[in-house]
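RECORD CONTENTS
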Amino acid sequence: MSTQQWHQFLETSATQHPLCDISPALLNETVICDLSHLGLLQLSGADTLTFLQGQVTNDVKQLDGQIAHYSGYCNPKGRLLALFLAFAHHDHIHLQLPKELIAPIAKRLKMYVMRSKVEVQDVSESIIKIGLNGARAIELLSPLFSQIPQSDYELVSLENGAIIKLPGNQPRFEIFTDIANAPTIWNSLALHAKVADATYWELQEIQAGIPEVYAKTQEEFVPQMLNLDLLNGINFKKGCYTGQEIVARTHYLGTVKRRTQLAHIDSDVAQNPGDDVFNGNGDSVGKVVRCAPSYSGGYDLLAEIRLESVEAGPLNVNGNALNIQELPYKI
């Protein structure tokens, strides 16, 4: 089965299992999503770990095939070019990021490989990515997989796929499999779960406080502005990497003055990553990081904002009042 056939399969499946809109009815449901909007790079070769160690904010040597972690990829000024969900699978390292960034990030990584024994490949189309979220997630996965990860960021690799448990309000998993196994997994899960599109998964990421970098927001944020340190996405003991001096200086020499907040707006229109956040005086004090429809209407979003402005309030995006919510972790 080709990738095109996979999408044709999903279209056919939709006649039996139609996509559900985000609404209060989905709050207590277990939901399955196709995650084809996410891209996946694969790095392999004898020098892969050494090469990546000099490129990203986290310690890739910790990726032992049993855990995943977030890691930032910065320019020399410490500004994020991409944010990866990184994990090892067999003798490869995989980096997941928005598909729109796959080509430019792959090109940039290849520029720095030089004589190192490292191969960078785009495997977005050959590895199928499926998301599952909800109270019955473990129950539905158990007939398909002999082992289910129990802790956040735990990775289990099996013959028919790899599974990562992700943080969230309910049990949440991402499944990585091949085109041969994907239809069986999808059909089994879809029998007992609702089917939703990528906006549902975006909402789960937002509510878990997980940031993202898109083409519009490249080079806008130092990692700490996106709470990457709070998500264990920065290792301050691993040694040098591109942008490390700025990231370390922010950590050791001063307090972080800008952080990413969870917020809600009552609006019928989505706000875009990179849109400005304004204070009551009309000054720009932050930027939208990511945004998705909320269960009860309006939109939930993550926004990077000056801490002093959060305390002072009020705030708005495109004239819409920004209501700060509580993140699932402490700032």
User: Anything to note?
Assistant: The chain has two domains: 3-13+20-207, 217-325.
